[in-house]
Amino acid sequence: MEKTWRWFGPNDKITLSMLRQIGVEGIVTALHHIPNGEVWSLEEVVKMRDFIERSGLRWSVVESLPVSESIKYGGPDRDHLIENYIESLANLGRAGVKTVCYNFMPVLDWARTTLEYPNGDGTSSLYFNRAEFAYFDIHILKRKGAEKDYDEQTLNRMQQIACTMDEAGERRLVDNIIVKTQGFVNGNITEQDQQPVEKFRRLLALYDGIDARRLRANMKYFLEAIMPVCNEWDIKMCVHPDDPPLQILGLPRIVTCDEDIKAFLDMVPDPHNGLTFCAGSLSAGAHNDVPALARKYADRTWFVHLRSCDVLPNGDFHEASHLAGRADLISLVRTFERVNPALPMRVDHAPLMLGDEKMGYNAGYSFHGRMLALGQMDGVMAVVRREIEEMKA
Ligand code: DNO
Questions:
Q1: Is the residue at 106 inside a domain?
Q2: What is the residue range of 56's domain?
């Protein structure tokens, strides 16, 4: 697989020359300075491409070209926003950037409750505590009917949390769940927002009456509209699975499991409609057999996120080492190296270690942690490629 790295543009503290030194081949990035919904002009795309190429790397994958909320819930301006999206895709195609990752998650891009959960060895990882999430939903957001979405055990744990919760703790939860994990991925809420919870409630309200069936129909409408430009420029669209792959906050989520993936691939059966195989997101759902999903969908996978989670009996999950956890990345590398050895892969979220915690990196995107993970995956890929060669000989 092609070794890529998510880089956040010229202001990223991790520079392209650092990435060359650690064996990165391709860059995954976006035009983060262009507001959601606006056209990515050819000039801006070429500027970014050339900046990357001057360092001896290539712009392999766009992550993400964000799908505006209104396209997802089917607002009155969706056709105009889809036109803009098509124009951005055409400009990417003209510039030779042909793999585009996006997601179709309403309101929230990804969710964690703790960003620095101590691992016991001095490093820390991202963590999703189901009971803390319930506290956010029920006590902070005060969503109507939220209690019925949680089992008794989670509600009991939540009561314990409520006994010791204070203002600072509530602020931390809001910050982790809807601010720090969102802003840097062009999400709906940024660090500048003064009233994040109010804004978040207004966003949730946009989905009143939108169930999974409607959301899926809107996804189909969007995909059918963009397939002609994807065919013209051979652009591979790859949807990112919902993270976590669960129903949350009363929102419909439609890329969470085997049936969902099958449904969206079948509803627009064009090879340009494909998947970002995010092993981390998928492994956070106890219902997903990740290696089996990889085998089943490798031929419609255009981009891979290598990351692994462990799910605890109480429903919490945390991000594991890239060589451990439920995702079984060794098995995944075997599958993808066989089916498509040119497939771009990047290591995804990794622990904070060796001073990463002082650097202010975007949540999940440490330097040392990701470098270690890339080294681990590089080793696995080298062994697997050797195995494949030996089998052919
Ligand atoms: C989080 C990422 C997501 C992902 C988008 C793709 O770290 O995995 O933000 O980039 O969902 O659209």
A1: yes
A2: 2-110+210-392
Write out the catalytic residue numbers.
Answer: 240, 278, 305, 348-349, 365
- Choose one of 158, 178, 205: the last residue of a domain: 205
Q: Which atom of ligand 1 is nearest to the CA of 103?
A: 12
Looking at the fold, whether 315 and 191 belong to one and the same domain comes out as no
Domain for residue 288, yes or no? yes
Answer yes or no: do 75 and 10 share one domain: yes
Cα distances (Å, whole numbers) of residue 327 to 77, 109, 226, 261: 39, 21, 32, 17
* This model's pTM is above 0.90: yes
Q: To test ligand 1's pocket by mutation, which of 72, 109, 276, 307 has the most ligand atoms within 8 angstroms of CB?
A: 109
Out of 64, 108, 179, mutate this one to test ligand 1's pocket (max ligand atoms within 8 Å of CB): namely: 64
Is residue 215 within 8 A of residue 106, CB to CB? The reply is: yes
Q: pLDDT (tens digit, 9 = 90+) per residue, 54-109?
A: 999 999 999 999 999 999 999 999 999 999 999 999 999 999 999 999 999 999 99
